[in-house]
């Protein structure tokens, strides 16, 4: 692919966000056309923000479903989840503005007001909780936010599933307390359509999605513990095998009923006899897997997701793997053939040599592919990887260098900022910011 073609591909806007923008513009135009004779009063503007909040929340519900074609509309499941967060954040901002602007009507009912208060408390709390994680600064705080931040993913995920209940309460509140919805058939019909989409997406995700998705059944055939924080699992298919591209991930549900499906990146090459996952212990669920997973355990693997692919990049590339972020690169490398000609500096950052799980295999792969150079950086030895080191490897001509990264989101964000400051083009820096919270 030529440099100019690559630029066009990376700057293109996915169709999903464009479609959502069109829907929001249509709603805004409808509110302008249906405005009352008194014009844009404070309460009318407050109503607009309230309904817009429902539009954003319904959109966010759609973004956490898996239906054919939706992932492609957003450029990957990780991007789809990011847009879910953006929509939910926009929704809560609109909801707060709605609460500030709206003026209590003499026709307000106690039930309508109670539903609005319930929705406000629930939505604000659950969405705020999504921004405070065990890895955030909030985890060191005292009080409610600090306690919430310290809760593991599994508990957050269980409680977060009830967000749809609060959304339904907000929808009913809007119908009961929105005078403009009552007086305008156009606005009411549009509002009910959006509500129906949001509720349908929520019910589909909670009660249908996992039951109708393809079930690819596997069995654990090998479990390795290369260090005290890493688990490498090999699975053999019991029937139809998962088809995947190098660098993709799947949701995996291991045997026990109390173990939940989690997204893990596939380390094996497409077409390999066994499916391999490298898992880093980071929470209650992965601790249980590390301690208890054994050969013979059944597993269900979802279809593969993701668009992390070096092939679309130019001939000069830099790969950056931090910790367990090495996994998609192993799938890339294991799928290489003798025609691999891209010039790659592969930087592997780990705590120490023990936690560089695939160190020997990386050396063998580098020996087999002359255009691949592997650089290791071990924190315990004081060999910290920095954007400046990447700049030194590449030299002065950095604008057309493709950079692919995988690792902890805070590190990846810092590296993206640092690399851009050194002259690397934003359009050529790619990393999958995929985390559940």
Provide a descriptive summary of the structure in words.
- With about 425 residues, the protein is of the alpha/beta class.
- It has 17 helices and 11 strands.
- The strands form 2 sheets. Strands 4-3-6-1-2-5 form a 6-stranded antiparallel beta sheet, covered by helices on one side.
- Strand 7 (about 315-320), helix 14 and strand 8 (about 345-350) form a beta-alpha-beta unit.
- Helix 3 packs antiparallel against helix 9 (about 165-175).
- It starts with a helix and ends in a 6-residue tail after the last strand.
- Residues about 1-10 have low confidence and may be disordered.
The gist of it:
The protein has 437 residues and is an alpha/beta fold.
Portion in helices: 40-55%
Oligomer: single chain
Distance between the termini: 35 Å
Strand tally is: 11
Chart the SSEs and their pairings.
Elements: H1 3-11, H2 15-33, H3 42-63, H4 70-73, H5 77-101, H6 110-131, H7 143-149, H8 153-160, H9 163-177, H10 179-183, H11 185-207, H12 209-212, E1 216-227, E2 230-237, E3 249-254, E4 262-265, E5 275-280, H13 284-292, E6 298-301, E7 316-322, H14 327-334, E8 343-350, H15 359-368, E9 372-378, H16 387-394, E10 402-406, H17 409-421, E11 429-431
Parallel strand pairs: 7-8, 7-10, 8-9, 10-11
Antiparallel strand pairs: 1-2, 1-6, 2-5, 3-4, 3-6
Helix pairs in contact: 2-3, 3-5, 3-9, 3-11, 5-6, 6-9, 9-11, 16-17
Features of this protein?
alpha/beta, 6-stranded antiparallel β-sheet, 5-stranded parallel β-sheet, 48% helix, globular, disordered N terminus
């Amino acid at each position: 692919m030529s440099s100019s073609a690559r630029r066009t591909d990376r700057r293109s806007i996915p169709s999903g966000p464009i479609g959502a923008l069109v829907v929001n513009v249509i709603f805004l135009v409808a509110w302008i056309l249906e405005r009352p004779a008194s014009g844009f009063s404070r309460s009318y503007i407050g109503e607009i923000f309230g309904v817009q909040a429902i539009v954003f929340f319904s959109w966010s519900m759609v973004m956490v479903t898996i239906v054919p074609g939706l992932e492609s509309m957003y450029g990957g499941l990780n991007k789809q989840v990011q847009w879910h967060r953006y929509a939910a954040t926009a929704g809560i901002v609109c909801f707060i503005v709605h609460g500030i602007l709206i003026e209590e009507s003499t026709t307000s009912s106690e039930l309508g007001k109670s539903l609005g208060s319930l929705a406000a408390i629930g939505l604000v709390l659950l969405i705020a909780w999504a921004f405070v994680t065990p890895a955030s600064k909030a985890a060191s705080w005292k009080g409610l936010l600090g306690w919430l931040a310290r809760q593991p993913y599994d508990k957050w995920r269980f409680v977060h599933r009830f967000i749809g209940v609060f959304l339904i309460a907000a929808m009913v509140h809007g119908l009961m307390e929105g005078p403009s919805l009552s007086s305008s058939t156009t606005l009411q019909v549009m509002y009910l359509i959006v509500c129906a989409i949001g509720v349908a997406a929520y019910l589909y995700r909670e009660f249908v999605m996992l039951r109708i998705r393809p079930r690819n059944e596997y069995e654990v055939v090998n479990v390795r513990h290369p260090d005290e924080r890493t688990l490498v699992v090999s699975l053999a298919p019991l029937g139809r095998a998962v088809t995947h591209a190098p660098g993709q991930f799947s949701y995996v549900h291991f045997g026990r009923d109390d173990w939940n499906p989690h997204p893990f990146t596939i380390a094996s090459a497409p077409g390999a006899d066994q499916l391999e996952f490298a898992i880093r212990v980071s929470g209650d669920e992965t601790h249980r897997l590390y301690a208890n997973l054994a050969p013979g355990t059944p597993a269900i693997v979802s279809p593969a997701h993701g668009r992390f692919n070096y092939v679309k990049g130019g001939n000069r590339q830099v790969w950056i793997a931090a910790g367990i972020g090495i996994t998609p690169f192993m799938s890339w490398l294991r799928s290489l053939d003798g025609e691999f000609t891209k010039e790659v500096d592969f930087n592997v950052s780990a705590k120490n040599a023990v936690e560089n799980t695939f160190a020997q295999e990386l050396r063998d792969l580098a020996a087999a592919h002359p255009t691949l150079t592997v650089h290791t950086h071990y924190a315990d030895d004081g060999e910290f990887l920095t954007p400046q080191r990447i700049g030194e490897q590449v030299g002065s001509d950095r604008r057309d260098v493709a950079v692919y990264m995988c690792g902890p989101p805070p590190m990846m964000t810092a590296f993206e900022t640092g690399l851009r400051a050194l002259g690397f083009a934003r359009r050529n820096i790619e990393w999958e910011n995929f985390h559940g919270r």
